[in-house]
Structure prediction request, 87 residues.
Amino acid sequence: MSCKHEAFEASVRVARIEDQGRFMAEIRITCANCGKPMQFMGLEPGLNYDGATVSLDGLEANIGIHPVGQRPNPLQKLMGYTVKAHN
Ligand SMILES: [Zn+2]
Prediction:
């Protein structure tokens, strides 16, 4: 009997890169019924504090995060907003 993967468990860990003052969300998703991990699609492997990447096995998405207000949000970027001071 094959699992139809109808329920999921997601885990998000937040990593602090102390020497850089940066933060990464590390996301994994598995089927709650059979335990099969879900592979993330459309992301390049590597490390990008300002973007999204995936582990070499495709099972962990890493997304750069930042406290709100310290970097332009997507709307502010569209409007040409620039940040004058950031850490
Ligand atoms: Zn399943």
Remarks:
- The mean pLDDT is 91.
- The radius of gyration is 16 Å.
